[in-house]
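Exercise 7. Given the encoded structure of a 148-residue chain, write a plausible sequence.
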């Protein structure tokens, strides 16, 4: 090593690293538009201690999506906000379904294991099982009750 202390920060799509001027350039929007979207709750960047906005790569992608829905599809900002909310709900529900599916799979595995343990505990020496011979049948006859 060169003697300098290295940081082990992980940069992800969620890491807020872009100031508003850079985010505006990357998204192709004016900084004032980004401020308006923030006020409306369409794209909410993280804030620094001094209240400066910091945008992540995901925020910039969302800005581009908002612009496309507005410019190309002609959807107003209230409609775009509702679309974003619904997409977030769908993503949360998909995550919950995945969690519940994993829980069900785990419970099914435990149940199968317990069932195997129960079957293994049977004492087969008490009453040996013999399958019925082909052609043998058991008929139950019940006499008809006389009508009252």
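Solution.
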């Amino acid at each position: 090593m060169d003697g300098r202390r290295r940081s082990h920060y992980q940069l992800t799509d969620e890491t807020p690293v872009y100031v508003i001027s850079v985010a505006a350039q990357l998204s192709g929007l004016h900084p004032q538009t980004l401020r308006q979207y923030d006020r409306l709750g369409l794209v909410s960047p993280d804030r620094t201690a001094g209240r400066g906005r910091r945008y992540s790569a995901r925020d910039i992608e969302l800005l581009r999506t908002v612009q496309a829905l507005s410019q190309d599809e002609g959807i107003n900002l209230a409609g775009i906000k509702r679309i974003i909310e619904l997409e977030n709900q769908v993503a949360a529900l998909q995550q919950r379904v995945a969690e519940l599916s994993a829980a069900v799979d785990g419970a099914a595995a435990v149940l199968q294991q317990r069932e195997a343990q129960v079957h293994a505990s049977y004492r087969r020496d008490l009453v040996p099982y013999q399958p019925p011979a082909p052609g043998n049948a058991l008929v139950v006859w019940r006499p008809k009750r006389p009508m009252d």
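Remark. DSSP finds four helices and two strands in the chain. Students should compare their own answers with the one above.
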